[in-house]
Amino acid sequence: MDLLAVVEKAWTAPFRTKSDFARENADAVAAAACRGLITTSVNATDHGRDWLVTPDGLASLWAARRIAK
Questions:
Q1: Phi then psi dihedrals of residue 46, to 5 deg
Q2: pTM of the complete model
Q3: b or e along 12-42 (b: 16 or more beta carbons within 10 Å of the residue's beta carbon)?
Q4: pLDDT in tens, 27-55
Q5: Which one of 22, 52, 63, 68 has the fewest CB atoms closer than 10 angstroms to its CB?
C-alpha cells in the first residue's frame, strides 16, 4: 500500500494500532510512522491506540494532491 494512502486513512478515519487495516498494511504503516507522517501521540507525554496524521503527514498529503491535479 502507498504511504499516502495510509496517511489519508489516518486523517479521514483513524485506525487502531491492532486493527485489521494496521496488520494488513504493517510495512506501509511502519514506514509512514518512521517518516513522521502518522503517530499515536495524543500530547507531549501520552500515546493512544489510534494512528493519527501529523502536520507533516497532512502537508505531504496536500502536496501530493496538488501535484496530481
A1: -120, 150
A2: 0.91
A3: eebbeeeeebbeebeebbeebbeeebbbeee
A4: 999 999 999 999 999 998 999 999 999 99
A5: 68
- With a pLDDT cut of 70, the percent of the chain lying above it is 99
Question: Which structural domain range is residue 28 located in?
Answer: 3-68
Written as nine digits, the cell of 6 is 495510509
* DSSP structure string for 16-34: ETTSHHHHHTHHHHHHHHH
Domain total in the chain: 1
How many secondary structure helices (H) and strands (E) does the chain include? 4, 3
Longest dimension (CA), the chain: 39
The residues that bridge with 52 in the sheet, in sequence order, are 39
